[in-house]
Amino acid sequence: MDSRRSFLLRSAGLALASRLKAQQPFDSLPAGVWKNARRNGLIMIHRETPSELFSHAQIAAPGEPGDPLVVAGQVFAPDGRTPAAGVTVYAYNTDAEGYYGANRIEYPPRIYGWMKSGAAGRFELRTVYPGHYPNMRVPAHVHFELWGGGYPIQWAEAVQFAGDSYLTKEMLAEDDRRGQFRTVREVRGGRCEYQMRLGTASNYSAG
């Protein structure tokens, strides 16, 4: 009886491990990409991905200082028209003072979380309005990494916010050319909408 119970427990454990491993896209990336993990942002992704994901997530803990922010997102296939369902969306941002890690360290981020896009490619995250990097003129933003649903792991352009004092005319002109997929978004009532388009290949670089 004990041996059968042990066998069943081992089998269940292996099945769970297999499901978790199947959800991880990281092993498919070339070794050279991992050597450049600090520059290309992979160092900011927490692992492992939870086994159960929803289309909405609260990525800032209750009581986190800062103004509440909701990002209502939608993921599209590479054609820019077809909503992409079942895509894992990993998001992270700085705290209200502009720091990612605990005790003001650079990484890993402490405000982060995962979602999975729904049937219409939609997801929603609740966080706090990110602060500017200290001593840098970089617009406030929220980062996104995408994978699954038939697509390889890739980073998406970070969402930025209209009216940010660090947005230059050149940045705005370049962003305007993105049309539907522009990254600078209006925040109304603490909420903004953001659409992103998947690529057919990973855009992580080893260089």
Summarize the structure.
This protein has helices spanning 2-22, 31-35, 37-40, 169-176, and strands at 56-58, 68-76, 88-93, 112-116, 122-128, 141-148, 151-161, 184-185, 191-197.
Which key phrases capture this entry?
9 strands; single chain; 4 helices; alpha/beta; 207 residues; Protocatechuate 3,4-Dioxygenase, subunit A
Description:
- The chain has one domain: Aromatic compound dioxygenase (Protocatechuate 3,4-Dioxygenase, subunit A, Sandwich), CATH 2.60.130.10.
- The strands form two sheets. The protein has a five-stranded mixed β-sheet. Strands 1-5-2-9 form a four-stranded mixed β-sheet, with no helix packed on it.
- Helices cover 18% and strands 28% of the residues.
- A hairpin with a 2-residue loop joins β6 and β7 (151-161).
- The longest helix has 21 residues, at 2-22.
- With 207 residues, the chain is α/β, with parallel strands linked by helices.
Number of structural domains: 1
Strands across the major sheet, in which order?
A: 4-3-6-7-8
Count of DSSP-assigned helices: 4
- The proportion of strand residues reads 25-35%
Average pLDDT, all residues? 89
Class computed from helices, strands and strand pairing: alpha/beta
Coarse shape:
globular
CATH topology: Protocatechuate 3,4-Dioxygenase, subunit A
The amount of helix comes to 10-25%
Question: Which regions contain 5 or more consecutive residues with pLDDT less than 50?
Answer: 5-22
Total strands? 9
CATH architecture: Sandwich
End-to-end Cα distance, whole Å, is: 56 Å
* CATH level 4 superfamily: Aromatic compound dioxygenase
Largest sheet: 5 strands, mixed
By CATH reckoning, the class would read Mainly Beta
SSE order? HHHEEEEEEEHEE
- What does the radius of gyration come to? 19 Å
